[in-house]
Amino acid sequence: MSNSTLRHQLFIDGKFVNAESGETLATLNPHDNSVIADVALAGKADIDKAVAAAKRAFPAWSRLSGADRGRILLKLADLIEANTEELARLETMDTGHPLRDSRSLDVPRTAACFRYFGGMADKFEGNVVPVEAGFLNYVLRDPLGVVGQVVPWNFPLMFTSWKMAPALAAGNCIVMKPAEITPLSSLKIAELMSEAGMPDGVVNIVPGLGSVAGQYLAEHPGVAKIAFTGSTATGRRIVQASAGNLKKVQLELGGKGANIVFDDANLTAAINGSAWAMFHNQGQACIAGSRLILSERIADEFLEKYIALAKSIRVGNPMDEATEMGPLTSALHRDRVLSYVDVAKEQGGEILAGGKAPSNAALRDGCYVEPTIVRPRSYKDRVAQEEVFGPFVTVLTFKDDAEALQIANGTEYGLGSGLWTNNLQRAHKVARDLYAGMVWINSYKRVSPGSPFGGVGQSGYGREMGFDAMREYTQARSVWVNVDAQIPPWYARG
Ligand code: NAD
Prior knowledge:
CATH topology of the largest domain: Aldehyde Dehydrogenase, Chain A, domain 1
Number of domains: 2
Structural class: alpha/beta
Number of helices: 15
Bound molecules: nicotinamide-adenine-dinucleotide
CATH superfamily of the largest domain: Aldehyde Dehydrogenase, Chain A, domain 1
CATH class of the largest domain: Alpha Beta
Distance between the termini: 85 Å
């Protein structure tokens, strides 16, 4: 891909434009920290322009039939598939996702999400409520207006679809701010949106700094809702910023996934699945299974094989077809992840594997970290409580089911958790008792456009995907019709 084909400007009102200030920010390739492109950096004036464009587009877009809105999203899904190779390479270059994953997961999941909500656009219904005799009461599900969306850098392409597809299907207009370090794939989606026939102004994409553009979008009085995926600390700032006009808020925040392996589990499947749960995308996933919780009866056997598997994961240039783990997405983040190795040691933790950058000279300039396995002293230690967001798993053991649950539920987060067992009753009982928005049994990290995605506790509120997402992007309005109600007069006169 030549750099001249890269979209690197803001997308406002159907056009690619420079920032009003003329400012840009370089986006880097995490394999070697070389500059991929200088990308326009949105400031307050650009956000104002984008919100105004979205506001102008809203009446026509929201009154279009669901079928017509859906047709554009379905066309977009086809275009995404037709551009799989370019999108996959762009995502890999900007984020460090291994190319095989960008191709087989990120792009197909992005297309599937737009297709699912394209199909949903003319099927999401209001309802009729049985009320008192003589009245018809119906409930409309109306779009909210201009929606602000703030996306993180770990799955920039896929999250663009998770955020945009339901909002657009429901008839909203969008101002989306991608993460400043990974703006390229969402700008390519903007180009494909136009090709699919999206009217100008319905979608605006404004890369910019979180503390400036993101903060201003969250505060903006012209924005009816702010949907955010990112860290819990930023989520709190978003809630405060939203208070000015009482905008609706949806938060997908951090996680510290518990992954419990019982002694009756299929160990071969559990070892492979647990490694993927942790090391896929270099562990940069809010739903990563970053706390391995093992029955002490199988812990030695499990760990021996799990460590061997982790050490055999092919870490390398994400553009190489054979690579199974690429670099972390930025040098800043790599340093943050590695700092947790010292945190573990300070609290008496034992490093069972990794804990450093790979020695391979070809990876020296990149943001690489080896698969890292740590045994902390207690589930209360910092490394077992705080989200590291890298290829960094903690291992703890338990005696019985009660202790497994105590450890699993012993953090402030509640996003995704999993368990491995062949005991049917135990599987459902533990799934019921886990404090998590999503639970996987004998598997991990499954997602689908139809299945609600989101957390409890400090992992946020609101749900993406499925009918829940459509509810999040609409508001119920109740209409009362007097058909033939016999209402005695309140003020009887003569
Ligand atoms: P982050 O909170 O630093 O940034 C996320 C986004 O928010 C970026 O676009 C950033 O520019 C923007 N931002 C930063 N400060 C802002 C502010 N004051 N106002 C408005 N926007 C602001 O998070 P990150 O480090 O980019 O992403 C990693 C985090 O995201 C992890 O905690 C991870 O668990 C979480 N995450 C959650 C989910 C989920 O669905 N629950 C999914 C993926 C990632």
